[in-house]
Amino acid sequence: xxxxxxxxxxxxxxxxxxxxxxxxxxxxxxxxxxxxxxxxxxxxxxxxxxxxxxxxxxxxxxxxxxxxxxxxxxxxxxxxxxxxxxxxxxxxxxxxxxxxxxxxxxxxxxxxxxxxxxxxxxxxxxxxxxxxxxxxxxxxxxxxxxxxxxxxxxxxxxxxxxxxxxxxxxxxxxxxxxxxxxxxxxxxxxxxxxxxxxxxxxxxxxxxxxxxxxxxxxxxxxxxxxxxxxxxxxxxxxxxxxxxxxxxxxxxxxxxxxxxxxxxxxxxxxxxxxxxxxxxxxxxxxxxxxxxxxxxxxxxxxxxxxxxxxxxxxxxxxxxxxxxxxxxxxxxxxxxxxx
Length: 339
Fold this sequence. Notes:
Blueprint: H1 3-6, E1 35-37, E2 41-42, E3 46-51, H2 57-70, E4 86-90, H3 95-108, E5 118-120, H4 131-144, E6 148-152, H5 165-182, E7 185-191, H6 210-214, E8 217-224, E9 227-234, E10 243-248, E11 254-258, H7 260-282, H8 289-296, H9 300-312, E12 316-319, E13 322-325
Helix pairs in contact: 2-3, 7-9
């Protein structure tokens, strides 16, 4: 039977028309245009942080959480335009572990985590492909009213087929509806495909291409030793140039933007410092600068910088015939790897 016969159309006079407005009469509403984090994340934007395993995706998400709540620059560079509370669900990390990381990011900026409005969802699971958990999340958002919702990672939020455009479209549509209803940003942490091509980070996201198309702002992390490469894309704004990030340990673990040349020099001199200490420890007498340069096969200027640094740190001493290791010296702490 013809479907139209089973469900006849009502009289047009009894139907409410769709709302229409002249394009020139639309006024921008506060908070709905511009940036949440300038150049990094659109105001009330949805999107992903994508990257391979161990590429600091969660670190970047937590950095954004602290930044948005505290109005301090994200990764030390990107200014927060519309600060506010943050709601976070970390499906793969224990709350104590998340707290430890957040504490490090906050303390590196001189902030007290206890004074920030970053709230953690403690549910053992959150399934956005079930009506029950969708309703529970809406109830939570209704009471918390965050500026930014972070869900980490996407794979733990559903049991849908990520390669199915229909199934992913339904899931992403629900998140878009949440963004519009509660006027917030939604950030998903997601993985890139294994052996994904480097030509297009968006196309390298695991699963359906709908995920790439869905994002208003997307961030991609790639490991490029000794740093991470952060690539940014926006739906409605030009993308800034990619930048390099490093996971620093001092004064507490946190991500920061670095100059790749300076980072490489820092890593190289740290490695040389360890080699100097090992060489002096193995020697039965003090070694001159020339002897160290010949043994280590390094530039004279770089060796001079390293020796001055080790002396300032009281790792080595200047002896009558060269340099010697202090008996109570300890190896320098190496720069952390970007993993």
